[in-house]
Amino acid sequence: MRTLLRLAALALAVCMLVTAMALEGGEVVELRTRGPDGAARVTRVWIADDGGAEWIEAASPERPFLEDVARDPDVALVRGGAAEPRRATIVAGPEGHARIRALLRRRYGWADRWIGMLADTSRSVAVRLERESPPVPAS
Protein backbone atom coordinates (compact mmCIF):
# COMPACT_ATOMS: atom_id res chain seq x y z
CA MET A 1 0.00 0.00 0.00
CA ARG A 2 2.85 2.39 0.86
CA THR A 3 4.51 1.74 -2.47
CA LEU A 4 1.27 2.47 -4.28
CA LEU A 5 0.87 5.77 -2.40
CA ARG A 6 4.46 6.72 -3.18
CA LEU A 7 3.96 5.96 -6.86
CA ALA A 8 0.75 8.01 -6.91
CA ALA A 9 2.52 10.92 -5.20
CA LEU A 10 5.40 10.69 -7.68
CA ALA A 11 2.98 10.62 -10.64
CA LEU A 12 1.16 13.66 -9.27
CA ALA A 13 4.43 15.54 -8.76
CA VAL A 14 5.55 14.75 -12.32
CA CYS A 15 2.18 15.87 -13.68
CA MET A 16 2.41 19.15 -11.74
CA LEU A 17 5.97 19.75 -12.95
CA VAL A 18 5.08 19.12 -16.60
CA THR A 19 2.05 21.39 -16.26
CA ALA A 20 4.16 24.20 -14.77
CA MET A 21 6.70 23.78 -17.57
CA ALA A 22 3.91 23.84 -20.17
CA LEU A 23 2.28 26.96 -18.75
CA GLU A 24 5.42 28.96 -18.13
CA GLY A 25 7.95 27.46 -20.55
CA GLY A 26 6.99 29.64 -23.51
CA GLU A 27 6.31 33.33 -23.68
CA VAL A 28 3.74 34.51 -21.16
CA VAL A 29 2.60 38.13 -21.18
CA GLU A 30 0.44 40.25 -18.91
CA LEU A 31 -2.76 41.87 -20.05
CA ARG A 32 -3.82 44.81 -17.91
CA THR A 33 -7.48 45.75 -17.91
CA ARG A 34 -9.86 47.58 -15.58
CA GLY A 35 -12.59 45.80 -13.66
CA PRO A 36 -16.13 47.20 -13.36
CA ASP A 37 -15.09 49.10 -10.22
CA GLY A 38 -12.09 50.64 -12.02
CA ALA A 39 -9.57 48.48 -10.20
CA ALA A 40 -6.65 47.19 -12.24
CA ARG A 41 -6.77 43.54 -13.26
CA VAL A 42 -3.65 41.68 -14.42
CA THR A 43 -4.09 38.46 -16.38
CA ARG A 44 -1.24 36.24 -17.55
CA VAL A 45 -1.84 34.80 -21.02
CA TRP A 46 -0.10 33.15 -23.94
CA ILE A 47 0.30 35.28 -27.05
CA ALA A 48 0.74 34.73 -30.77
CA ASP A 49 1.59 37.17 -33.56
CA ASP A 50 -0.33 37.01 -36.81
CA GLY A 51 -1.39 39.41 -39.50
CA GLY A 52 0.29 42.42 -37.89
CA ALA A 53 -1.59 41.95 -34.64
CA GLU A 54 -1.07 40.09 -31.41
CA TRP A 55 -3.64 37.48 -30.40
CA ILE A 56 -4.57 36.11 -26.97
CA GLU A 57 -7.22 33.69 -25.79
CA ALA A 58 -9.90 33.79 -23.13
CA ALA A 59 -10.36 30.13 -22.18
CA SER A 60 -14.10 30.73 -21.80
CA PRO A 61 -16.53 33.60 -22.43
CA GLU A 62 -16.91 34.05 -18.66
CA ARG A 63 -13.29 35.09 -18.07
CA PRO A 64 -13.31 38.39 -16.12
CA PHE A 65 -10.71 40.05 -18.34
CA LEU A 66 -12.90 39.39 -21.39
CA GLU A 67 -15.76 41.24 -19.69
CA ASP A 68 -13.32 44.10 -18.99
CA VAL A 69 -12.31 44.23 -22.67
CA ALA A 70 -15.97 44.28 -23.76
CA ARG A 71 -16.55 47.26 -21.49
CA ASP A 72 -13.29 49.10 -22.31
CA PRO A 73 -11.09 47.93 -25.20
CA ASP A 74 -8.16 50.15 -24.19
CA VAL A 75 -5.74 47.79 -22.44
CA ALA A 76 -2.04 47.53 -21.70
CA LEU A 77 0.14 44.64 -22.80
CA VAL A 78 3.28 43.87 -20.82
CA ARG A 79 5.61 42.03 -23.15
CA GLY A 80 9.36 41.84 -22.71
CA GLY A 81 9.06 43.89 -19.52
CA ALA A 82 7.52 46.96 -21.17
CA ALA A 83 3.87 47.99 -20.84
CA GLU A 84 2.40 49.33 -24.07
CA PRO A 85 -1.13 50.44 -24.92
CA ARG A 86 -3.23 48.22 -27.14
CA ARG A 87 -6.74 48.27 -28.56
CA ALA A 88 -8.45 44.93 -27.93
CA THR A 89 -11.09 43.48 -30.22
CA ILE A 90 -13.05 40.40 -29.22
CA VAL A 91 -13.28 38.02 -32.18
CA ALA A 92 -16.16 35.82 -31.08
CA GLY A 93 -17.60 32.88 -32.95
CA PRO A 94 -16.21 29.79 -34.64
CA GLU A 95 -13.78 31.71 -36.88
CA GLY A 96 -12.12 33.51 -33.98
CA HIS A 97 -11.98 30.33 -31.92
CA ALA A 98 -10.42 28.34 -34.78
CA ARG A 99 -7.88 31.08 -35.44
CA ILE A 100 -6.64 31.44 -31.87
CA ARG A 101 -6.52 27.67 -31.34
CA ALA A 102 -4.43 27.26 -34.52
CA LEU A 103 -2.11 30.13 -33.58
CA LEU A 104 -1.49 28.86 -30.06
CA ARG A 105 -1.11 25.25 -31.20
CA ARG A 106 1.49 26.33 -33.77
CA ARG A 107 3.36 28.61 -31.32
CA TYR A 108 3.29 26.51 -28.14
CA GLY A 109 3.21 22.98 -29.61
CA TRP A 110 3.38 20.23 -27.00
CA ALA A 111 2.56 22.68 -24.20
CA ASP A 112 -0.72 23.65 -25.88
CA ARG A 113 -1.61 19.99 -26.36
CA TRP A 114 -0.77 19.19 -22.71
CA ILE A 115 -2.84 22.06 -21.33
CA GLY A 116 -5.62 21.09 -23.73
CA MET A 117 -5.85 17.73 -21.95
CA LEU A 118 -6.29 19.50 -18.60
CA ALA A 119 -8.43 22.51 -19.50
CA ASP A 120 -11.47 22.75 -21.75
CA THR A 121 -10.88 25.39 -24.41
CA SER A 122 -13.79 24.31 -26.61
CA ARG A 123 -15.57 27.60 -25.86
CA SER A 124 -12.50 29.84 -25.94
CA VAL A 125 -12.69 33.33 -27.40
CA ALA A 126 -10.01 35.08 -29.45
CA VAL A 127 -8.91 38.61 -28.67
CA ARG A 128 -6.92 40.63 -31.21
CA LEU A 129 -4.59 43.28 -29.81
CA GLU A 130 -3.50 46.11 -32.06
CA ARG A 131 -1.14 48.98 -31.50
CA GLU A 132 -3.03 52.20 -31.62
CA SER A 133 -2.05 54.33 -34.58
CA PRO A 134 -0.25 57.52 -33.64
CA PRO A 135 -2.31 60.66 -34.10
CA VAL A 136 -2.09 62.27 -37.53
CA PRO A 137 -0.55 65.75 -37.24
CA ALA A 138 -2.84 68.60 -38.23
CA SER A 139 -1.87 70.38 -41.43
Summed up, what is this model?
Helix content is 40%, strand content 32%. It has 4 helices and 7 strands.
Task: Describe this entry's structure for a reader.
This protein starts with a helix and ends in a 9-residue tail after the last strand. Strands 2-1-5-6-7-4-3 form a seven-stranded antiparallel sheet. Helix 1 crosses helix 4 (110-118) and helix 3 (93-108) crosses helix 4. The protein is elongated and about 60 Å long. A hairpin with a 2-residue loop joins strand 3 (48-50) and strand 4 (53-58). The protein contains four helices and seven strands, in the order αββββαββααβ. It has helices at 2-24, 64-71, 93-108, 110-118, and strands at residues 28-34, 40-46, 48-50, 53-58, 74-79, 82-91, 125-130.
Break the fold down into its secondary structure elements and pairings:
Blueprint: H1 2-24, E1 28-34, E2 40-46, E3 48-50, E4 53-58, H2 64-71, E5 74-79, E6 82-91, H3 93-108, H4 110-118, E7 125-130
Antiparallel strand pairs: 1-2, 1-5, 3-4, 4-7, 5-6, 6-7
